[in-house]
Write a structure and sequence with these properties.
Blueprint (H helix, E strand, L loop, with lengths): L6 E5 L16 E2 L2 E2 H10 L5 E5 L4 H6 L6 E4 L7 H10 L7 E5 L7 H13 L4 E5 L5 E7 L4 H5 L8 H6 L4 E5 L12 H8 L26
Parallel strand pairs: 1-4, 1-6, 4-5, 7-9
Antiparallel strand pairs: 2-3, 6-8, 7-8
Length: about 220
């Protein structure tokens, strides 16, 4: 059976509240604003790309000018990450898997996104979660079509954490190089340390679970 092409949803509606007036989405990485860099990487995979944006940071939309990514304004972005997920999902083609990408990961690359999409193609009924080379769980996460109803029902600012906890047996960890999956910079000091090569440590996380056994590879009924 032919499956619809996976979609990429980039979450870029956060408030950058810890940046003290700055905007981490507009930090320059590889010569361009981070939000543009990650969107260009996503578009290079050939998948349809949607970017969830807040209504009160117009410079982010400006940074995406000329790119063939769909922009969705999240009216209730301050309600938390789940609002961005719900708004983004509503704009995606029905029935497709969705690779959810946080826009503020400065080490994430096109190759990393392709690695995640390839894993999704190998095990299309599993949730594919990126982890660091040392096994720390991170982002992005690719959700199969069966998970979309649960994503659409999320609330609050914990993202898909509860969904992932409910379906631990159906989560496949995929290691990305180095710290690509876990380098998430929220303060000016963290950005300065990262640029200086003194990478801040991520918050404490449990190691990624092992790959699911063949008996666990069935999607929920």
């Amino acid at each position: 059976m032919n499956r619809p092409q996976a979609s990429i949803l980039i979450l870029a509606a956060g408030a950058s509240s810890r940046m003290r007036g700055g905007d981490k989405m507009l930090e320059i990485v590889d010569g361009v604003a981070q939000i543009r860099r990650i969107t260009e990487a996503a578009l290079a995979t050939g998948c349809p790309v949607t970017v969830a944006l807040p209504p009160d940071h117009p410079a982010r939309a400006v940074a995406l000018a000329g790119l063939a990514a769909r922009q969705v304004v999240v009216a209730d972005a301050r309600a938390g990450m789940s609002a961005s997920i719900r708004a983004g999902l509503a704009a995606l083609p029905p029935g497709s898997a969705v690779l959810i990408v946080l826009a503020d990961l400065p080490e994430l690359t096109e190759a990393d996104l392709r690695t995640m999409l390839a894993a999704q193609g190998e095990t299309p009924d599993l949730i594919i979660r990126a982890c660091s080379a040392s096994g720390l769980p991170g982002h992005p996460v690719c959700f199969p079509p069966w998970a979309r109803a649960e994503l659409a029902a999320l609330s609050g600012d914990t993202g898909a954490r509860d969904l992932l906890a409910r379906h631990t047996a159906l989560v496949r960890a995929v290691a990305l190089p180095g710290r690509h999956a876990v380098t998430d910079l929220d303060t000016p000091e963290a950005w300065a340390a990262w640029r200086a090569g003194n990478h801040p440590m991520p918050e404490q996380r449990q190691p990624c679970p092992p790959r699911p056994r063949p008996s666990a590879l069935s999607a929920p009924a």
